[in-house]
Write a structure and sequence with these properties.
Layout: H1 3-38, H2 47-72
């Protein structure tokens, strides 16, 4: 492999890791609490707090995904 190919593979690995982190963030921070609330497993949290926390996790996930996309922009 040439040095450029090795560099590209390292960048792709980093972007894949960040994309996985973004997926985990949106799953754990958005879908998990909503499902728990709808099943009655979270009783002492109001829907407003749940919505704000879920929205924050969704925004953080989108930001991580955009960072991963910008890393791929540096491919040679």
């Amino acid at each position: 492999m040439t040095p450029d190919e090795i560099f590209n593979e390292h960048l792709k690995l980093g972007a894949i890791y960040l994309n996985g982190l973004a997926i985990a963030t949106v799953t754990a921070g958005t879908f998990g609490p909503i499902i728990s609330y709808s099943l009655g497993l979270i009783a002492n949290v109001g829907p407003g707090v749940l919505f704000l926390a879920s929205a924050a996790c969704f925004v953080i996930s989108a930001a991580i995904h955009l960072i991963a996309q910008s890393i791929l922009g540096a491919l040679r």
